[in-house]
Amino acid sequence: MSEHEHEHNHKHEHHHDHEHEHEHEHEENPKESIIKISITAALSLAAFLLTSCLDLPAWGVLLLWLAPYLLISYETYLEAFENIRHGEVFDENFLMCVAATGAMVLGDYKEAVLVMLLFQIGELFEGYAVGKSRRSIEQMMDIRPDMARVVRGEQTEQVKPEEVAIGETIEIRPGERIPLDGVVLAGDSTVDTSALTGESLPAAAAPGDDVLSGCVNLSGLLRVQVTKAFGQSTVSKVLELVQYAESKKTKSEAFIRRFAKIYTPCVVAFAVLLAVVPGIITRDFAEWFTRACTFLVISCPCSLVISVPLTFFCGIGAAAKRGLLLKGSSALDALARIKTVVFDKTGTLTGGVFHVTAVHADQFDEQELLRLASAVESASNHPVARSIVLTCPVEEPAVSEIQELVGRGVKGTVGGKSVCVGNDKLMDELGLPWLPCHLVGTTVHVAVDGVYAGHIVVSDEIKPEAKAALAALKNEGVQKTVMLTGDAEPIGQAVGRELGLDEVYAKLLPADKVERLESLLKAEKGGATLAFVGDGINDAPVLARADVGIAMGGVGSDAAIEAADAVLMDDDPRKIALGVRLARRTMRIVRQNIAFSLLVKAAVMALGLFGLAPMGLAVFADVGVTMLVILNAMRALKAE
After folding, report:
1. Chain-wide mean pLDDT for the chain?
2. pLDDT score of 382
3. Are residues 384 and 356 in the same domain?
4. How does pLDDT run across 75-84, given as a tens digit for each residue?
5. CB under 8 Å to 597, separation ≥6 — which residues?
6. Which of 146, 232, 294, 543 could form a disulfide with 563 if both were Cys (CB 3.0 to 4.6 A apart)?
7. Main-chain dihedrals φ then ψ at residue 56, nearest 5 degrees
8. At what angle are helices 234-248 and 3-19 packed, to 10 degrees?
9. Dihedral angle over CA of 625, 628, 629, 635, nearest 10
10. What angle do CA 613, 310, 563 make, to 5 degrees?
11. What is the pLDDT of residues 117-137, one digit of tens each?
């Protein structure tokens, strides 16, 4: 990355952090915000009662209202000044401050406090919405290896992966994730590489074989000599790729912020002209200054500032109830405009679990062939072996002389018969003729007493809900469905045909997936967005690069969940279409609230220009409309 790009990304990150600083504050201290709002409401009620009952001088009334006003508004003023310091002058904080200050100058203290009070309630809602979604997702995230077991002398120490030097030996026990890249010194095992390559079939690991960080050791104990420091390991490089893709991804900015950048300067400029130009002509500066301030109070975008984030919050909450977690309003906005959905295969459209799908016997009946294979495979921890044993359980297999043939299969003696179970290589070693199976999946050959006895087909089955999920997406107006997979071409194409996918790209490495996704993104037109659905570490860069990244939360990897914009908690792809429907309904409500707010405000503003809009009407144009749009926003809470 060039120095210029690095500087640009740094500025982008700083801007992004600053933009959400206020939001995070509400997220982290909701109790403080609630207490502040409650005290302000109590002080305002006291001020209203005292000023109504007592004949106080003007300065006494000001002092009574100044306490709740300063309490509820000081954070907004600070945020507005901070934004101005960073070059963001005309945002909602600035307009709220101008409007409230105008109300204070006019002596409408109740209006000034109410404006700020409603604004803070809206900010609290917004912070709670995004905070709840973020906290739910953070509970599932742990994207780096926790520890490495390094062998030093005769002892094994648990240390952070960063503390292991190149050339040291680490120990990886069954079920543990490999923390660093290296070469196997001792031990035989199988390694689940699907997190990195997307390949569903585990790979053999024997002395001399390379193993990559991020993969999971499935069966035997391995001792590995480290060949790369943690910073240069495969996992670190994948995570760097995620960050690079993230820096290229432009998040959809919330509509209210885009709107405020145009609306606010226009309103302020018009108010200044209204105060100055007619005042010069008529020489009645006080009258036109009052009209200008009234105009600002009327134009206060309280209904927009509150209803828009509240509507997004309700939409996010409705999706969460159905098991779809969204990371903020921009994800929901992009989800509503989806026209292309790209899927990973293993664990997304397929279950990621092996099953016996066919048995072709030559010398025995199918059940006997399964029984012999199951007896020998019962001693193996390989996922394919476990699927065969699960299909035909053997209570007490009379098997002896078991020998695991790494990368080829296993052999043993069952009831006096010599049984060999394995792949094509094993059959070639035995000199036995075999024919490739026409079915898609992993073919496991069986030889008995030196004679080819048949084969068993084991495959990763398509999820029963996958076809319905794709049909539902088409019903929601999704124009194209695509699959990107690291699996072999025949397997990928077979799955694509069965599910009716529009396009299938197979045998892709993580970098290839990003490249393919880039070309698909370029084809999107007219504000349409693209979603990618995946679950493995290898999917993290593509999830980050897509307009909407959707991760499988149940089986998904930590890196994928971190990079995604949305998480399917129950791994049901049918929830994607539901999410699209909820997002579109939410955006319709957002547009309704915006249109209604602007229509009413435009009408009252027109009256205000001619001095026909008293402050009471200005309050209705702000508070009354706000209440109505809040009620409309609550409709987005419905889960259907």
Report:
1. 78
2. 74
3. yes
4. 889 988 888 8
5. 301, 303, 304, 307, 625, 629
6. 543
7. -95, 150
8. 70
9. 180
10. 140
11. 877 876 776 566 555 544 543
By C-alpha distance, which of 481, 470, 561 is closest to 520?
481
Same domain, 496 and 565: yes
Give catalytic residue positions: 344
Q: State the pLDDT at residue 254.
A: 52
Contact 609, 274 (CB under 8 A): yes
Instruction: Name beta bridge partners: 483.
Output: 343, 504
Question: Does pTM top 0.85 for this prediction?
Answer: no
CATH number at residue 405: 3.40.1110.10
pLDDT for position 52: 85
> How many C-beta neighbours within 10 Å does residue 549 have?
31
Which distant-in-sequence residues (6+ apart) come within 8 Å of 306 by Cβ?
118, 119, 121, 122, 125, 626, 629, 630
Structural domain includes residue 339: yes
* CATH number, residue 215: 2.70.150.10
Is there a single domain that holds both residue 407 and residue 541? no
Structural domain harbouring 550? 323-350+463-580
β-pairing, 182-186 vs 189-192, is: unpaired
343 in a structural domain: yes
pLDDT value of residue 592: 92
Give the Cα separation of 608 and 348 in Å (integer): 58
Q: Are residues 575 and 548 in the same domain?
A: yes
Residue with tokens 């149940």: 554
Judge whether 295 lies within some domain: no
Q: What is the DSSP string of 5-72?
A: HHHHHHHHHHHHHHHTHHHHHHHH-HHHHHHHHHHHHHHHHHHHHHHHHS---HHHHHHHHHHHHHHH
Q: Rounded to whole angstroms, how far apart are CA atoms 198 and 357?
A: 21
Coil, helix or strand for 198? coil
480-484 and 417-422: which strand pairing?
A: unpaired
Q: What pLDDT sits at residue 15?
A: 41
Count of helix runs (H) and strand runs (E) in the chain: 23, 22
In Å, what is the CA distance from 468 to each residue of 462, 465, 471, 581, 582? Answer: 12, 5, 5, 15, 18
Distance CA 213, CA 111 (A): 61
In DSSP terms, which residues pair with 442 in a beta bridge? 458
Specify the DSSP class assigned to residue 344.
Answer: -
541 and 517 part of one domain: yes
Phi, psi of 539 (to 5 degrees): -85, -15
Q: Is 169 in contact with 163 (CB distance < 8 Å)?
A: no
Residue where a domain terminates, one of 535, 551, 580: 580
Tally of domains in the chain: 3
What strand order describes the sheet that includes 566-568? 324-326, 566-568, 548-552, 529-534, 338-343, 480-484, 503-505
Residues 520 and 576 in one domain: yes
- Please tell me whether residues 437 and 529 are part of one structural domain: no
Specify whether 420 is located in the same domain as 471. no
Q: How confident is the model at residue 251 (pLDDT cuts 50, 70, 90)?
A: very low
Q: Which among 417, 420, 414 is positioned nearest to 398, based on CA atoms? A: 414
